[in-house]
Amino acid sequence: MFDISIIGGCGHVGFPLGLSFAKAGFSVGLLDVNQKAIDQINQGQVPFKEEGAEALLKEILPKKKLTCTNDPKILLKSKCVILVTGTPLDEYLNPKLNAITKVIEEYLPYFKDGQLIILRSTIYPKTSQKIDQYFKSKNLNVHLTFCPERVTEGYALSEIKNIPQIVSGFSPEGIERASALFSKITKKIIHMQPLEAELVKLFSNAYRYIHFGISNQFYMLAEEHGVDFGNIYHAMTDEYPRMKGFPRPGFTAGPCLLKDTMQLCSFSQDHFHLGHAARLVNEHMPIHLVNQMKSKISLEDKTVGILGMTFKPESDDPRESLSYKLKHLLEMEAKHVLCSDEYMKHENFCSKENLIESSDVIVIGTPHEAYQTLDFKNLPVFSVWLQPSCS
Question: For 303, phi and psi rounded to 5 degrees?
């Protein structure tokens, strides 16, 4: 028997959560279709960069509290099933509302009466209500809850412990059981109605996306008029409490912020004008960077090297990274484009040292810390990131 099974348990959302529950003494099963990740975890290797995960995994595995498998029969042996499937976007930036229902339909034969079902990833508003109705239509007496993850990728283990956990659901028993589980791994529980909980997650991510968009808009405006935004940013934020938390400019990307903002645009029937405006600003940053490069040097006979291809610093996750948009734009302008990354490996990437040696121009796609001390050999270096100087 398992206390908890997690569908999609070897990914960025499910794996840290499974580790956290296993550390708290629960018997946890991680169900996934990614056989490579299953094998890695079972062998004590983490499948992606997550602070503290490797040490914790090596501590947990000998205790037999964590099992990874592709066999859905473990769901039949589980008191609680957690689904980490979210709502992706299609090629037109519309929410694919059937993504989570397809997963539930696939595993329907393995759910059973009395189970606690926890929806964990971000979902489109009112999705949890539809799933609850779906289970009822199948005569399955489960206790459905929505308990969204709110952590930063790469630091999930520490944030699971310290960030309040929102718990919502459709039955008092389900809410009580979900609260009891999460109270073992986090400090505070906040109870809400399901739609409120769905909107908390979407509003939070959209707010951050818009916040980054404001900084990026200011940055581009300053640059277009030949003003150093670094000086402006310092003056805006230095010992001025009302600007506390104002973000630095940079590529705003990744698997969550744009996606969740576009979900709200759809939910509002395209009346979420701030969300649309933020997308136009943030997605324009690679274009702005290339235009700034072209205004200062001719690219057509140059080899351009991009340092950093992941969506944020100190990460190995390339999902929705704007460094790839930058790469495609530069391939239309430059003679050659080379790529390198500290944490993500690819057969077409080269080392940072070889990239510098072979390039005429350097551009910082993602400002990993390792680039701060590089010798760029007097090559021109371009960046939209206000980080400690890389030149």
Answer: -95, 120
Q: Let me know if residue 389 belongs to a domain.
A: no
| Spans of the chain below 70 pLDDT | 387-391
**Residues 95, 70: one domain?**
yes
Adjacent-strand bridge partners of 305: 338, 362
| Count of CB atoms situated within 10 Å of the CB of 314 | 16
Q: How far apart are CA 199 and CA 194, in angstroms?
A: 9
N-term to C-term CA, the chain: 57
Please check whether residues 188 and 205 belong to one and the same domain. no
pLDDT at residue 388, rounded to an integer: 41
Backbone torsions φ then ψ of 243, nearest 5 degrees: -110, 15
Residue 344 lies in a domain: yes
Angle between helices 273-296 and 194-224 (to 10 degrees): 30
Give tens-digit pLDDT for 34-45: 999 999 999 999
CATH of the domain at 264: 3.40.50.720
Instruction: Give the per-residue pLDDT at 390.
Output: 35
Q: Read off the tokens for 20.
A: 């956290």
Using CB atoms within 10 Å of the CB of residue 172, give its burial: 0 to 12 exposed, 13 to 18 middle, 19+ buried: exposed
Q: What is the pLDDT of residue 243?
A: 96
Q: Where does a domain end: 155, 175, 192? A: 192
**Domain total of the chain:** 2
Which phi and psi (to 5°) does residue 153 adopt?
-60, 130
Residues 217, 159: one domain?
no
Q: Which residues of 354-386 are buried (b: 16+ CB within 10 A; e: fewer)?
A: ebbeebbbbbbbbbbeebeebeeeeebbbbbbb
387 falls within a domain = no
CA atoms within 13 A on the CB side of 305: 22
- Are residue 165 and residue 219 in the same domain, yes or no? no
Pair 37, 99 in one domain: yes
